[in-house]
Write a structure and sequence with these properties.
Layout (H helix, E strand, L loop, with lengths): L5 H22 L3 H7 L6 H4 L9 H17 L3 H15 L5 H15 L5 H15 L5 H17 L3 H15 L5 H14 L1
Helix pairs in contact: 1-2, 1-4, 2-4, 4-5, 6-7, 7-8, 8-9, 8-10, 9-10
Length: about 190
């Protein structure tokens, strides 16, 4: 503490602890709950100085970890969806586009883009909130493509095609050939 500013140490400890908790949860190691309990234990001095604009850091970390545990360790899309719905209800207007984006990306990553119809339907609601915000071009393309994947899961080829086409058109602004090829493949699969 004599060499490094306090905010740097706090940032390091909080990022490290959150990363540890989330990794344990993904692996199905229930020790993640003990690590979260440290927020009120030996790490209390660090976490007492963390200010959030929404809910307490312990709740935020726990909800994210419980979600990761359900998705990655238990392969429980339904449980994850239920947990995230409660989280977004509790967050209300404090939920940010990043919160919705993280929920969608975790869902897609953990399932290998193989969503149930219920998951696809819920993800589309989150994507609507996300896509109505100000996103950089690459994020907009990515989330439009995911929306297309959700519509494809729901066998709505027309809306899937619309999302893929929007993403494809935007991809020309990036010059990223890989995006264009991947989106063209998705469009071809709809035919």
């Amino acid at each position: 503490m004599k060499l490094v500013p306090t905010y740097t140490l706090i940032s390091f400890f909080t990022v490290y602890q959150d990363g540890l908790v989330q990794e344990l949860a993904k692996k199905g190691d229930l020790d993640y709950k003990r690590q979260i309990a440290r927020i009120k234990g030996d790490l209390k001095p660090v976490f007492d100085s963390v200010k959030t604009t929404s809910l307490p850091v312990e709740y935020l970390m726990t909800t994210k970890a419980d979600g990761n545990y359900l998705l990655y360790a238990k392969k429980d899309q339904k449980g994850y969806i239920s947990l995230q719905k409660k989280f977004f209800e509790k967050m209300g207007d404090l939920a940010k586009p990043d919160d919705y984006g993280q929920a969608v990306l975790a869902l897609m990553d953990a399932t290998g883009n193989k969503l149930t119809e219920e998951s696809a339907t819920e993800a589309l609601g989150w994507l609507d909130k996300l896509l109505s915000s100000d996103l950089d071009i690459m994020s907009r393309i990515r989330f439009l493509a995911i929306a297309g994947d959700c519509y494809a899961t729901l066998n709505n080829s027309e809306k899937a095609r619309s999302c893929y086409n929007q993403a494809y058109t935007l991809s020309f602004q990036t010059g990223d050939i890989n995006f264009q090829v991947g989106l063209q493949e998705k469009l071809n699969l709809l035919n």
